[in-house]
Amino acid sequence: MYLTIAETAEYLSLPESYIEALVHDNKIRAVHDGEQYLINREQFNQHLEQMEKAKKQLAEYLSEPIPEDPDVKDED
């Protein structure tokens, strides 16, 4: 499915100006139909999956209890 720059910005929760800059820098593949750029949404699936995986890993890490520190002062 193809999206416009505005729709892509909303889909990725990023500013339109940033998406437009990525298109002009050829960091995002897009097709120009004479009036506007059209961006294939499927190219972001792997990135979004990796972001969700990273968020889950971070949440798991932050929910781990802090281990008790050994008492290092008793080195007599």
From TrEMBL:
InterPro entries: HTH_17, SinI_DNA-bd, Tn1545/Tn916_Xis. Residues 2-50 form the Helix-turn-helix domain. Pfam families: HTH_17 (PF12728). It comes from the Bacteria. One of its GO terms (molecular function) is DNA binding. Transmembrane segments: none annotated. NCBIfam families: excise (TIGR01764). This is Helix-turn-helix domain-containing protein. The lineage of its organism: Bacteria, Bacillati, Bacillota, Bacilli, Bacillales.
